[in-house]
């Protein structure tokens, strides 16, 4: 061993031995994470064969993951990017039903912001001059369901469509 400024430095033989021990430990760890190797005819499996099996195993798992993610997007009805899926799942869905002499608003909203959207719906209805009869909501899973029943000041034909248009415009603005 050589000395440099009072420090001892291991020789090349020791460095190489430590490197081989470290690589052997890494190979063992990798192979322990894989399923048992397939038995080959003619004896022992070489390290190169095991590494090729590891590579093929990892590639197979990556392909399976991609297929499963594609299948999940198909089943959830969205083929867009993650941000498009998140935006689509959070956009409120509003339906206005004509009940004569009043209307009912049913809003399906993400529970994260359902209080804000509910307040906006009430604000728009108040600006229309309606009398709210009942208002209720329930949170189920990743959705909040709001039901608001009210008397419209005038209940003409197409009133439900007009109210729905104003609500959607106010909420999506």
From TrEMBL:
Family, per entry: Belongs to the bHLH protein family.
Keywords, alphabetical: Coiled coil, Transcription, Transcription regulation
SUPFAM superfamilies: HLH, helix-loop-helix DNA-binding domain
Highest taxon listed in the record's lineage: Eukaryota
Domain BHLH: 7-61
Gene3D superfamilies tied to this protein: Helix-loop-helix DNA-binding domain
BP terms from Gene Ontology: regulation of transcription by RNA polymerase II
Full protein name: BHLH domain-containing protein
Stretches assigned to coiled coil: 51-78
Classification lineage: Eukaryota, Viridiplantae, Streptophyta, Embryophyta, Tracheophyta
GO molecular function: DNA-binding transcription factor activity; protein dimerization activity
Pfam families: HLH
């Amino acid at each position: 061993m050589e000395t440099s400024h009072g420090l001892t430095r291991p020789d090349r033989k020791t460095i190489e031995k430590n490197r081989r021990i470290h690589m052997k430990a890494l190979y063992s760890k990798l192979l322990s994470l894989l399923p048992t190797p397939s038995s080959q005819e003619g004896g022992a499996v070489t390290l190169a064969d095991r590494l090729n099996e590891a590579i093929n195993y990892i590639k197979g798992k990556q392909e399976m993951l991609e297929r499963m993610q594609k299948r999940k997007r198909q089943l959830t009805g969205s083929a867009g990017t993650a941000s498009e899926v998140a935006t689509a799942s959070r956009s409120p869905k509003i339906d206005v039903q004509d009940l004569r002499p009043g209307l009912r608003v049913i809003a399906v909203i993400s529970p994260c912001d359902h209080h804000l959207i509910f307040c906006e719906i009430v604000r728009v209805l108040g600006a229309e001059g309606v009398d709210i009869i009942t208002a209720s909501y329930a949170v189920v899973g990743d959705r909040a369901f709001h039901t608001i029943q009210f008397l419209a000041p005038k209940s003409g034909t197409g009133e439900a469509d007009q109210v729905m248009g104003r609500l959607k415009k106010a909420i999506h603005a």
